[in-house]
Write a structure and sequence with these properties.
Length: 223
């Protein structure tokens, strides 16, 4: 399995795990691949390309494939296209946008703007509407199925929108600390909690396999 939403803090200052720490914890959880993301409001002051090289070297020892990216948080919707483009120029291999979760105060319109901007994953999109879900399916933007206790309240709704419109579902735990990471529930339990049918569960498995392949292949837009 994989988790495409693990928070890291390369400098050890901001909320998040050190890269080597995140990879070790991922190995303990039996994950095959992870997306390690730094928080950003659109301003990046580190080389994601260099960080990506370091993370891949560390991943060889942890036996976990990893890619580095950003989660854009509280970026005004009108500025998201520029922020997504700047993140890719900075070397982000994975771009998430913090969606309109019920647990946060993200600006209205962020979900649709994230899809229009071409993010890879719309993280914890809350009560995502039909228009946004249909557009996400068209553009290949994945909706996140969240294992995070703060953001998982709308998993059943997100799954229903994905089923209705054919969206990819991306597994994301949103962990910032070792305790959060190790206490995340198994993904099949998350599916069961979202009342997945056997067909939906199998589609989720297939979706994660496809996402992992695209993530590892890299090159341009990740998903």
């Amino acid at each position: 399995m994989l988790d495409l939403h693990v928070h890291i803090a390369p400098d050890g200052q901001a909320p998040g795990l050190l890269p080597a720490e995140a990879l070790r914890l991922a190995a303990l959880r039996g994950l095959r691949a992870v997306g390690l993301v730094v928080r950003s409001d659109g301003s990046l002051n580190l080389s994601l390309r260099r960080l990506g090289e370091q993370v891949r070297a560390l991943g060889l020892y942890a036996n976990v494939d990893a890619r580095v990216g950003v989660e854009l948080i509280h970026v005004p919707p009108a500025l998201l296209p520029e922020a997504v483009a700047d993140a890719r120029k900075a070397g982000a291999e994975l771009v998430l946008v913090h969606g309109e979760s019920l647990a946060d105060t993200v600006a209205e319109g962020t979900n649709l703007a994230a899809v229009e901007a071409g993010a890879d994953i719309l993280a914890h999109p809350g009560l995502v509407d039909d228009q946004t879900a249909a557009y996400a399916a068209e553009k290949g933007v994945a909706l996140e199925l969240s294992a995070c206790p703060r953001h998982c309240l709308t998993n059943a709704h997100v799954a229903a929108m994905a089923e209705r419109h054919g969206c990819l579902l991306a597994p994301g735990g949103n962990a910032h600390t070792p305790e959060e990471f190790l206490r995340l529930p198994p993904w099949m339990a998350v599916c069961q909690g979202a009342a997945f049918s056997a067909t939906q569960t199998e589609r989720f498995r297939s979706s994660t396999t496809g996402l992992m392949k695209r993530l590892m292949e890299g090159g341009g837009k990740t998903l």
